[in-house]
Write a structure and sequence with these properties.
globular, binds adenosine-5'-triphosphate, four-stranded antiparallel sheet, binds magnesium ion, six-stranded mixed sheet, single chain
Amino acid sequence: MAQLQLEQIRKSFLNGESEEEVLKGVNLSLEKGEVTALIGASGSGKSTLLTIAAGLQPLTSGKVLFENQNLAELRPEQVRKIRARHFGFVFQSSHLVPFLTVEEQLAMMMDIAGMKVSKHEKETQIKNILEQVGMTHRLKAYPPSLSGGEKQRVAVARAIIHNPKVLFADEPTASLDSKRSKDTMALLQGVTKSLGMTTLTVTHDEEMLVYADRIVTMSDGQILESAESAGRFS
Ligand SMILES: Nc1ncnc2c1ncn2[C@@H]1O[C@H](COP(=O)(O)OP(=O)(O)OP(=O)(O)O)[C@@H](O)[C@H]1O
Ligand SMILES: [Mg+2]
């Protein structure tokens, strides 16, 4: 069974007097252990689809199915709980809190996710995740002292510290150079496999598609094609 399933998603925005349909009946299944890359022209609806899949904004019609529950039908408080416990997010900019150390940012996420763990266990988990992203040496650092690539590695660690089932990333490499971008995507792919997550990432960069298992192209609010990454790009 798919980890997250989108069925006939439609989304319209009121644009002055007229209604503009930005998503026109999108179907998409996201499987466990897979990275799905969402590509397409600017304005085609990629970010809108991602935020709807993550329960961050309401949809006009359709279903977002996560573990047999339709997010579109749940109360906002129920969606908030699912999001905090089971979803992780990485955006173009790392959005780290400047006055919290790397360690404190991760501890805060565990609290938000409602994880009930001892102080010792918390420290161990934080160290483990930072090891995965190669940042243990900056445990006590504040974000302003980190490089762009390091900030994004901490952002990835923060997105996965609560062991989410689905990871959403919107242009996670847009502010990084080519080497850092590849490192970040390889990391996302690695943790998706090792933690058995499902990852949906928007990207503009063709070079990043080798790190995806599946490539989905959006055009004018619809999905055009879906391809396996291997074979097409490797
Ligand atoms: N809150 C909103 N109100 C009105 N229109 C919106 C809103 N959010 C998005 N749109 C419109 O929906 C369309 C799709 O936007 P979206 O941000 O999903 O595109 P995108 O594919 O992510 O583009 P980009 O690659 O530039 O990030 C655009 O025309 C945008 O202006
Ligand atoms: Mg976008």
